[in-house]
Every structure is written in C-alpha cells, then in structure tokens.
Amino acid sequence: MTHAALYGKLRSEFRSNRLSIFKKLPFEWVVGLRYTRAGRRSGRNSFISFISLISMAGIALGVAALIVVLSVMNGFQQEVLDRMVSVLSHIEVTDASGAMSDWQAVAKEAFQNKEVKGAAPYTSSQALLLNDGTLRPALIRGVLPQEEPKVSEVASQIKQGRFDDLRAGEFNIVLGSGLARALQVDVGQKVTLAAIEGQITPAGVVPRLKPFRVVGIFDSGEYEYNSTLAFIHIEDAQKMFHLDAPMGLRLRVADMHRAPQVAHELAVTLSGQPLLRDWSQQNRTWFAAVQTEKRMMFLILALIIAVAAFNLVSTLVMTVTDKQADIAILRTLGASPASIMKIFMIQGAVVGLLGTAIGGGLGVLVALNIDVIVPFIEHLLGVQFLSSDVYLISELPSDLQWPDVWKIAGMAVVLAFLATLYPSWAAARVRPADALRYE
Prior knowledge:
By secondary structure, the protein is an alpha+beta fold. It is built from 16 helices and 10 strands. The protein has a 6-stranded mixed β-barrel with strand order 2-3-8-5-7-6.
C-alpha cells in the first residue's frame, strides 16, 4: 500500500470516528462546535472566525498575564517575608506585668505544643547610638547568644565578627550593616549607647551613657532592620535599662504560616496572663499594603480578560447576523428558542474555555520557569532588570499558588459565559419568516 493510500485510509477512518462521536452529541453541541470552526466558503465566515481567534487570544493573554504577575508578586512577598522572619520571631510572648522572671517555665509550657520548635528570652528597648558626633536611633534587643539561633537567623547573617562574642558583663554589641555604616564604625571599635530613660539627679534628668564595643555586623537583606537593629547580651540590657528580668519569650514554630493559629492555642494553654503577638501582627501595615496592591493589580489585569469578553460579544453578534438563515431553517425543522440559544452559548463557551486553557497553561509554564526565562531575556537584550546595586533582590522571584490559578481561570470562564447571553438571546428571538424573506 502506497503512502498516499495509507494516508487516505487513515483520514477516512478519522472522519468516520469523528462522525460517530458527533452522532452521540445533542444537535446543539454539533452545530455550536461547527460554528466555532473556521469557515472557508465565505470571506465573511473567515472574518468572523478570525475575530473568534482574536477573542480567544485576548482571553489567553489576560489569563497568562494575571497568573505570571500574581506569581511574581507572591514571590516578592515571600522573599521579603523570609528576610523579615529571619530577624523577627514567629511569636512573641510577654507578660501583662511587663517582665517574665521565670521564662524557662514558660518555654517548657510552650514546648508542650508540638508546633513550637524553639524558644529564647529577649528584651527590647529604644536607644540612641553615638560615634564622633553622629547620632542614630536604634532598637536595642537583649538576647542570649546561645539561645538566639533557635528563634532567628541573625547568627548566620553575621558578615564581620562573631555573634558568640556577646558575653555578659563585657558590654559588646552587634550592629546592622546599615547602622554600622551610618555610624562609621567597624568591628573592634566602640560606640556609645544612650538610654532614652535617663537618671534623675538634682541637676535634672541625665541620660545613661555606656560605651559598647562592636563585635559583629550582620546583614539581614532588609533595609529597615539593617539600619535600626542592634543586639547586646540580655544581662547587659537588663543593667543598662534597669530591668529585673527578660521582657518576654520569642518562639519559632514548624510552619510560620500557622503561627497565628499556634499563638491562639498558646494563649489558652500558657499559665499566667500571657500576651501573644505573631509575625503577621508585628508587620500588619506592610501586609495590608501588599494585599491591597495585589487586589488592585488583579482588578487592573482582569480588564484584559473583560475586553476579550466584550470582543467575544461582538463576534457572536456577527455570527448570529450571518447565520439568520440557518437559525430560521432550524426553527422551521422544530428547534426551540432554547435550543437556538444553547447553540451560540456553546460556541462562546468553547472559545472561552480554549482561551482560558491556553492562557492558564502558558501562565503556569512561565511562572514555574521565570528563573530561566528572565535571565535568557536579559542576556538576549543585554540588560539587567533588577540591578544588585539598586535593589535588594537581584533575581525575579516567583511563587505560583494554585488557588490563584483556579480563581483566575474561573473568572475568565464566567466572563466568557456572560458574554454569550445577549447574542444567544438575540438568536433565539429571530423569526423564521423574517429571516427567510430575502433568501
């Protein structure tokens, strides 16, 4: 058998199988799917099919763009969040009295919750740091160097010096890189710490001043913490700020996203009058701003899908105008207005579903491989989108979240379905006598 004969046989078998499948479908589906295909006999049909392809491409483009943009925003949010939590604790536990003298007992109670993986005491006070006439405000955190790695990653973020050099009674200090740069100090040099709560003397309130030796400089990757945060030994902090005991306990949990729920559970199980605050409450303003930005970006990019849906309306209206004779014949053969309406709703729904599927697949593919695509484009164009000299993040992060994908796909399908209602309703109102009058 020749190749041409084999090809002809396979083509005839495919056509017969396709016809057998079509025979099992309701006639509304058969006609609707047929109208969706490109017409070759009429230039007008070809134009209508071209407009259908444009509508499908518009829906696909909107869906893909929305998935990629939200994934990148999720990636940025997760990157910043990881840097924040590397310095902050997942949960802070304080006592209503303002001091926690027996923090070991509280830590033991907290560890009864299986989600809690680490605990360390802390103090926190506002102060001023001075060096050669330069004055900078700072948040001074008193910690136990051997316990702090259990709740934060500061010890691993040390760029110069050693975190373990924070020893009780030696009055050493670890500064953020931005703070050290502003004060123009390096490891081994000294800065003066001025407590805001001064000493009351006959001459008035005199600030408490104490020189501290810089034993380490850390870089968390977050500007706010690098430029305002400093660590000292907790016993030195208690002496400097006249504290009798640690202010509270910092906890780390297995899953940071479950920290609010764990904090709620600990509020019930811990003895005394505990006050608990998780990481989301410590940065409530920032997270609220990010969520607002994501919602606005979702609405703005959803307009692309809405425009494509409006384009689909015009496509179906043109199809209804072009197929009035067909509609009239179907009505004459006994098709009900509801059946006519289904035909054009199926046509529009197929365009919407195909556009959503193509756009969803393309968006997911780009979002999952953005770490490869962006460097390739940068190399091709000879540019760098995120310069490390300007931005803290030099690579474009992406965090694809499937609930976002299903939400976007559902919205696109709903908009496409709504776009079919008016044209389908107009097709159902076509009168056979009027449509066939000039045929």
